[in-house]
Amino acid sequence: MAPTDTTFTVHGDADAPTLVCGFAEYGLAGLTAANYLVETLSLEPVGHVRAEGLPTVTPFEAGTPRRHTRLFSAPDAPLSLLAGEVVVPPAAAAPLGEELVTWAAGAGTREVVALSGVPVAHGPDDHRAFYIASEGYQRRHDLGESDVRPMAGGFLDGANGAITAAGMDADVDTCVYTTPVHAQAPDVEASLRLLDAIDTVHGLDLDTGPLRAYADEVSRYYTELADRMNADRPEEQVPEDRMYM
After folding, report:
1. What is the 3-state secondary structure (H, E, C) of the chain?
2. What pLDDT, on a 0 to 100 scale, did the predictor assign at position 56?
3. CA geometry: angle 50, 51, 56, nearest 5 deg
4. Residue ranges of the domains in the chain?
5. 194-224 per-position pLDDT tens digit
6. Who's near 67: CB < 8 A, 6+ residues apart?
7. More confident residue, 126 or 60
8. Which of 32, 50, 232, 239 would you label with 40, given CA atoms 20 to 30 Å apart?
9. Please, are residues 181 and 118 in contact by the beta-carbon 8 Å criterion?
10. Which CATH architecture describes the domain 3-206?
11. Is the pTM of this model over 0.85?
12. What are phi and psi of 51, to 5 degrees?
């Protein structure tokens, strides 16, 4: 079955006003942030997304299998979470976005938010999160007065673009929080920027200390790795940017 024949079905119920999605994309920034929200907000599995037409992927941990795309929620929680561990090809993104937005509208969810990293050339001054949001989302959360800045221009593709496009044809507001990411390693620092953005806008009062400690550990690891590689090959200086390692 070709990717264009892929279909998605959401199984489960969640009545939080906001659905936050993190997918297996560049640097795993959005997925890492989504999983951290699940733990921090003490959310429980309430459903999953079934995909027909994609290669079968079944993650497992400690010998126990789980669904590749899981829905989390809890009574009175401000957010529901969707964590997707399967890579969705661009050709299959449209049916995923349409299914998520249709399901959200039927569940009474007002808005669908995606957390995502983008592998673009950037300097330290670009280490911040940006938003691409529907006008309704911008008004509801007063983004014009927020410290999170709008992305100046460009195009959204993949699952993020599909969700945004589907929201324009439904009574569901959408927002994509994005930040530059290093594609070749788990970019925890990028995940932290995404968490800071959604915390700022939604007032979640997150404690990101444990994840920040892990970010420092990852940063030290790659710094030490670069030092060792440079020591072994002094004539070939290895760049510090993990994107090129």
Report:
1. CCHHHCEEEEEECCCCCEEEEEECCHHHHHHHHHHHHHHHCCCEEEEEEEEECCCCCCCEECCEECCCEEEEECCCCCEEEEEECCCCCHHHHHHHHHHHHHHHHHHCCCEEEEEEEECCCCCHHHCCCEEEECHHHHHHCCHHHCCCEECCCCCCCHHHHHHHHHHHCCCCEEEEEEEECCCCCCCHHHHHHHHHHHHHHHCCCCCCHHHHHHHHHHHHHHHHHHHHHHHHCCCCCCCCCHHHC
2. 79
3. 105
4. 3-206
5. 999 999 999 999 999 999 888 888 778 777 7
6. 48, 49
7. 60
8. 50
9. yes
10. 3-Layer(aba) Sandwich (3.40)
11. yes
12. -115, 130
Residue showing tokens 């510090």? 240
**Residue appearing with tokens 């932290």:** 192
> 130 CB contacts (<8 Å, ≥6 apart)?
148, 149, 150, 151, 177, 178, 179
Long-range contacts, stretch 66-75, CB < 8 angstroms, 24+ apart: 70/45, 71/10, 71/12, 71/14, 71/45, 71/46, 71/47, 72/14, 72/38, 72/43, 72/44, 72/45, 72/46, 73/13, 73/14, 73/15, 73/16, 73/43, 73/44, 73/46, 74/41, 74/42, 74/43, 74/44
